[in-house]
């Protein structure tokens, strides 16, 4: 099939490359010239495992091109909208400027029978509004909502082998002609048994926000349990292991720590609350306010624990923060709890050094006032306290005996509960986890 992908950020760049891998002829379109130049030379503008190899692979076959010229969408029969929907400045709601601009830009190039496929995360009701806009310009074109569930760090495999496909179509019916078109797009994953659900437009939009809200709730639930474990002297990691063995609960996303961040979960739960308010259903989602509050409390809790760990206040203390990305295998620092904690510590008088295998450039752009050191050993030298805030494998594997020699005081706060407390304590470290005795 001939496919255009509009928006080449985390979602679009991966989607374009994966669609080419699935055998389609794809053009990726974005207004950002630098991004397009990088992608066109098979360079990923962000760190995503496997993406550069995939870009090289499909560009060599000629099945993937990139351009800033939206007119290149003409001739494609399927157009994926993959632009971002960030949080509006000063508000909880989602900013739909990029989605609206992408659709407007596409209108002159739509032909009869074309299918526009929305993948961006949008407030419920957006798809039916956009279907109206498209219908006015090209009555024979169609709109489908096909939410994306990929995780950063696993984006390529999540796109090539999704755990489910959701098609929201205007009448919610299996026999809608767009279903056949999308089945052809996703023929390969469908042939391996990927479940596929056809819904109406609002249900498809809600599937995405509901899924992310559930994940956020699960994380905040276990972080609330961590608060209780701290108060009661219990161990939240063993608690999670035990409740997670009930397969109705499951162990995944029950890792207590400094909480969730990134470009999706935090802004999606806020946009969901804002949209529920507009629909007069705000009460249904008031619990998400608590989910957000528990999550934010994690960050201040770590600042307080670091103060305790340092003994006599933070002023002038040399703190080394391991990890800047919002999670491992990503260089994304959007709403990163690790960086937010580093910045708060610095504001309270600590001298903070941050290290991360991939995210330092992005971190330095966001918080230029912090000190960044790429080399872990250098970053750790003479530290008064070490904070493990993003659980990269190399940090989990640090040797406490070796490390004790380079720091000025062996104190570690394990913000992701990934270290073995006994091992660190026996190497002479003062160890603190979150919700662990
Ligand atoms: C999330 C969803 O998991 C994807 O399904 C969704 O497609 C995506 O948002 C999106 O909307 O585009 P992502 O933001 O890549 O994916 O990250 P997650 O793996 O969900 O992690 C989010 C945050 O939760 C991270 O900061 C992570 O460290 C934290 N987390 C995760 C925990 O604190 N504890 C856990 O047990 C799991």
**Largest sheet, spatial ordering of strands:** 3-2-1-4-5-6
Radius of gyration: 23 Å
> What is the number of independent domains?
2
Give the N-to-C terminal Cα separation.
57 Å
Strand tally: 14
User: What overall geometry do the principal axes of the alpha carbons give?
Assistant: globular
Structural class: alpha/beta
CATH fold annotation of the largest domain: Rossmann fold
Q: In the CATH hierarchy, what is the superfamily of the largest domain?
A: NAD(P)-binding Rossmann-like Domain
Give the helix tally.
Answer: 18
Low-confidence parts lasting 5 or more residues at pLDDT below 50?
none
Helix content class = 40-55%
Mean pLDDT: 97
**What is the CATH class of the largest domain?**
Alpha Beta
- Please indicate the percent range of residues in DSSP E strands (runs of 2 or more): 5-15%
Based on the structure given, which CATH architecture of the largest domain is correct? Answer: 3-Layer(aba) Sandwich
Q: What ligands are attached or bound here?
A: uridine-5'-diphosphate-glucuronic acid
Question: Main sheet?
Answer: 6 strands, parallel
């Amino acid at each position: 099939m001939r496919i255009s992908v509009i928006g080449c950020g985390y979602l679009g760049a991966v989607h374009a490359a994966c669609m080419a891998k699935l055998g389609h002829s794809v053009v990726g379109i974005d207004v950002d010239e630098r991004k397009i130049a990088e992608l066109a030379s098979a360079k990923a503008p962000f760190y995503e495992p496997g993406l550069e190899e995939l870009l090289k692979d499909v560009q060599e076959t000629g099945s993937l091109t990139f351009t800033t010229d939206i007119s290149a969408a003409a001739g494609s029969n399927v157009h994926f909208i993959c632009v971002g929907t960030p949080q509006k400045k000063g508000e909880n709601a989602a900013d739909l400027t990029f989605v609206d601009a992408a659709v407007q830009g596409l209108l002159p190039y739509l032909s009869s029978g074309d299918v526009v496929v929305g993948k961006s995360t949008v407030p419920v009701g957006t798809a039916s509004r956009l279907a109206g806009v498209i219908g006015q310009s090209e009555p024979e074109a169609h709109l489908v909502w096909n939410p994306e569930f990929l995780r950063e760090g696993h984006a390529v495999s999540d796109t090539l082998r999704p755990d489910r496909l959701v098609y929201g179509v205007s009448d919610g019916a299996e026999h809608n002609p767009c279903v056949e078109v999308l089945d052809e797009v996703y023929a390969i994953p469908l042939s391996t048994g990927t479940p596929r659900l056809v819904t109406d437009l609002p249900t498809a939009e809600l599937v995405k926000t509901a899924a992310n809200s559930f994940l956020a709730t699960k994380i905040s639930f276990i972080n609330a349990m961590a608060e209780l474990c701290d108060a009661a002297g219990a161990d939240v990691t063993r608690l999670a292991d035990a409740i997670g063995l009930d397969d109705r609960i499951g162990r995944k996303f029950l890792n207590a720590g400094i909480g969730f961040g990134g470009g999706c979960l935090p802004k999606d739960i806020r946009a969901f609350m804002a949209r529920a308010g507009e629909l007069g259903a705000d009460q249904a989602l008031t619990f998400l306010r608590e989910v957000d509050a528990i999550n934010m409390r994690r960050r201040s809790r770590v600042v307080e624990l670091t103060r305790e760990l340092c003994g006599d206040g933070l002023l002038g203390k040399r703190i080394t923060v391991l990890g800047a990305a919002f999670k491992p295998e990503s260089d994304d620092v959007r709403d990163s709890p690790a960086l937010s904690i580093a910045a708060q510590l610095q504001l309270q008088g600590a001298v903070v050094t941050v290290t991360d295998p991939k995210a330092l450039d992005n971190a330095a752009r966001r918080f230029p006032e912090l000190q960044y050191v790429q080399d872990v050993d250098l970053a750790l030298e003479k530290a008064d306290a070490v904070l493990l805030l993003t659980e990269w494998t190399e940090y989990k594997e640090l040797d406490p005996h070796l490390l004790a020699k380079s720091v000025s005081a062996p104190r570690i706060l394990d913000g992701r509960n990934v270290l073995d407390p006994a091992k660190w304590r026996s190497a002479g470290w003062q160890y603190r986890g979150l919700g662990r005795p």
